[in-house]
Design goal:
Elements: H1 22-32, H2 36-52, H3 60-67, H4 76-96, H5 100-127, E1 145-149, E2 159-163, E3 166-173, E4 176-181, E5 195-197, E6 200-202, E7 209-211, E8 217-219, E9 229-234, E10 237-242
Antiparallel strand pairs: 1-10, 2-3, 3-4, 5-6, 6-7, 7-8, 9-10
Helix pairs in contact: 4-5
């Protein structure tokens, strides 16, 4: 008597990662073996953290500027393309001055940097989800949804609720109740587990800060505002309706 055994039937998708294509796997293996990069990256990272400061500190504004927080859009692609453009411009200047070999070497360096950066950027954005708006695909209801009793709200305390499958975080301040999306737009951190001060909630993961009144970004690294909810009270119930959904 025999029986057929089907491999992986009881394994979820999280336990069965996709098989990488050979080229991507080879590139990943090469990068992983460069352990010397860790010795270089760790002190540089610590220096940058100290240089840019913590959320709320004056020098943090420079990091927000480089992240694109003020623009509402990531500046990394622009900064990278700008540096490559400078290399190509320098290459042109060298050629015009008769230094053709130096110009070719510099432009070649620019193209190599461009190709590597494009691959790395694609890996980070498309494979790792870094730099994208992590609430862009959330939907919402066109109608108000009753989510809790008003008496259960605690003054000044962040409260997580579910609005038709969309997580939101509430804050009661005096006679006002504010509600924004509970998922940080930067890397999907839980805002309800963060801290709140003067109507501003700080993500516990990377320190992004959002205004509870309108969802705007006060400090990065987030660049996209948190979605907001209209709030109304009816028959002792708190009702929410998402304002800016697709």
């Amino acid at each position: 008597m025999s029986s057929d055994v089907v491999q992986g039937v009881n394994r979820g998708w999280a336990e069965t990662p996709p098989v990488n294509p050979p080229l991507r796997h080879a590139i990943g293996e090469v990068v992983e073996r460069q352990t010397w990069l860790d010795k270089l990256a760790n002190p540089v990272q610590n220096w940058l953290l100290a240089f840019f400061g913590q959320p709320g500190q004056p020098n943090r504004k420079m990091k927000d500027m480089l992240n694109g927080t003020w623009l509402g859009h990531s500046l990394h692609p622009v900064l990278l393309n700008g540096s490559i453009a400078i290399l190509n411009l320098a290459s042109l200047v060298l050629r015009l001055r008769g230094k053709r070999h130096a110009g070719v070497a510099l432009s070649t360096t620019g193209y190599v940097v461009s190709l590597f950066s494009a691959y790395l950027g694609g890996e980070l954005v498309f494979a790792k989800g870094i730099g994208v708006n992590h609430v862009a695909w959330e939907g919402g209801s066109d109608d108000f949804v009753a989510i809790m009793d008003e008496r259960d709200l605690v003054e000044g305390k962040l409260t997580r609720v579910d609005v038709s499958g969309i997580p939101a975080v509430l804050l009661k301040q005096g006679q006002s109740i504010y509600a924004i999306g509970a998922t940080c737009t930067h890397l999907a951190g839980p805002l309800d587990e963060g801290t709140v001060e003067d109507g501003v909630v700080q993500c516990p993961w990377h320190g992004s800060r959002f205004c509870m009144r309108d969802g705007s970004v006060v400090n990065g690294p987030a660049v996209y505002a948190a979605p907001t909810f209209a709030v109304r009270l009816r028959n002792g119930k708190v009702e929410l309706r998402r304002l800016d959904h697709a």
